[in-house]
């Protein structure tokens, strides 16, 4: 990639605040704290950019990411696109349930058991995410507003550990890096 791609996890959503697994559930909105996290992230990104950078914000099509992308695009004076390939991993039967239980169960379960529960397979998540990243215009700097699990599953993503709401990472075309 010629230009940097900043990966930004959406701000705190209503379900994050309640400890509920979201997955591809479309409707949880950002909380006030989540909007503030996005403002803070946008201000940090503004420090990373030069005045000549052409910037585009691309977000997942899930409400919490779209809202976060709107905040960032407005603060940076950038355009925003939405790409459904940047959706969070589908967590099947776990969506709408206690997140601690989801993490505990999915951490112990085999790929077969996860598929039986409707959890999207890791290779599929990585394939669609890498395809979306590969389609970004290489002449622009990009901010991708999406989801923590998506970023952790990318090459090098597991090394960054837990991705907090509003956290900015860098994708160099090969791996994820913490800023």
What does this structure look like?
The chain is of the alpha/beta class and 179 residues long. It has one domain (5-178): Rossmann fold (3-Layer(aba) Sandwich). 42% of the residues lie in helices and 15% in strands. It has a six-stranded mixed beta sheet.
- Give the proportion of residues in helices: 40-55%
Low-confidence stretches: none
Sheet with the most strands?
6 strands, mixed
List the domain count as a whole number: 1
Number of helices: 8
Distance N to C terminus: 18 Å
The CATH homologous superfamily is termed Phosphoglycerate mutase-like
Secondary-structure element sequence? EHHEHEHHHEHHEE
Derived from helix and strand composition plus strand pairing, the structural class reads alpha/beta
The CATH topology assignment is: Rossmann fold
Instruction: Report the strand count.
Output: 6
Q: If strands are numbered along the chain, what order do they take across the biggest sheet? A: 3-2-4-1-5-6
- Approximate strand percentage: 15-25%
Tell the overall outline. globular
List keywords for this structure.
alpha/beta, six-stranded mixed β-sheet, single chain, Rossmann fold, 179 residues
Concise account of the structure shown:
With 179 residues, this protein is of the alpha/beta class. 42% of the residues lie in helices and 15% in strands. The radius of gyration is 16 Å and the shape is globular.
